[in-house]
Amino acid sequence: MKKKYVVWNNKGGVGKTFTTYCMACEYAEKYSDKKVVVVDMCPQANISVMLLGGNGEGAKNSLKLIDDKKTIAGYIQARESRSRREKTGDELKYFVKPADYNKNMPNNLYLVSGDMDLDLCSELIRYMEISPQKDSWKISRNLLNDLISSFEDKYSDDECVFFIDCNPSFSNYTELAILSANYLIIPCTADPASLHGVKNVSRILYKKDVNNGIYIQFKERAEQEGFKLPVFYAYINNKNRTKDKKSAIAFKAASEDIESYVNSNFSTDIKAFEIKDCNTLAVIMDYNGIKPSDLTASSYKTYGRKARAHESQIEPFQKDLARIVDIL
Q1: Which pLDDT score is estimated for 215?
Q2: Burial of 262 (0-12, 13-18, 19+ CB in 10 A)
């Protein structure tokens, strides 16, 4: 099965973008013979900014792609205005190499850049789905599939692996992301709100633990239109606090609640991981646009100040990440 990972949780602040960034960068670094593609399906476009150089230069590069309409929103707009039922023929222009903008990135890494106009595009997607044309819902939900398949066709001799970053909401452009993937990874943090987000994902996509009176039709509609929903592959507990004994106890209890819910509603084959709390490292990578493997015990310029990356943080973080990348 081709590897297309959608990274989603129906809750914000759980590390979706950071996790996607780390997995994609390290996967591309480890497997230099493969084409690795990040698709940014979040209006905030944070992962695009990180890949394109970090806050500062990366933000400028992201805005330039937006101005040139070489973003996911640019593609949706082109399809709505020019070619609703068919591909536009210039799909490959929406795939850029972060290494062309950011020397820290692997040369085999590609990006479909995010765009703040993606929220506005939700209205275009809705307009396409209610069109009187035959199969209009299916056509509207295949937009990202069409874009991805164009890349796969171009590089048919290479193995292509996709990482799709989503925002928390279950919008119609989130549906595009979900229906383009075959594996689901759920980042979470050990707290009740995050558990609720995991439950919402399982209700929406798999109709698990659905309370009476809750009306969810996405699963049925997707299957009716011939889509296969992604397999729930793994969940990742971010921001593990092991040094503070009180925090560690609370984390363990909340983690066990998530584990219990997953095991009781899904196959026990689902993989579970933890990533140590690395707030400082995340800020350093976010600002400077560097890969996790490039982190060293030194000081980095970060928002006009110096932030210190300590080996005591770097080593466990890199080991946790390596364990995840090994099974992707």
Answers
A1: 64
A2: buried
Whether the CB-CB separation of 141 and 179 falls below 8 Å is answered with yes
Contact 188, 194 (CB under 8 A): yes
> CA 315 to CA 231: how far, in whole Å?
31
Angle between helix 72-82 and helix 118-129 axes, rounded to 10 deg: 30
pLDDT given at position 325: 96
pTM for the structure as a whole: 0.94
3 state SS of 236: strand
State the DSSP code for 196. Answer: H
Rounded Cα distance between 232 and 305, Å, is 41
Tell how strand 231-240 and strand 271-276 pair up: parallel
What spatial distance separates the first Cα and last Cα of the chain, rounded to whole Å? Answer: 12
What was the pLDDT predicted at 255? 81
Decide the pairing of beta strands 109-112 and 183-189: unpaired
Strand intervals (E) in 139-205: 160-166, 183-189
Structure-token match 């799709």, residue found: 164
Domains of the chain with bracketed CATH: 4-326 (3.40.50.300)
At residue 240, the pLDDT reads 61
Nearest residue to 106 (alpha-carbon basis) of 1, 43, 23, 177: 23
Grouping H, G, I as helix, E, B as strand and the rest as coil, residue 300 is strand
Report pLDDT for 180.
98
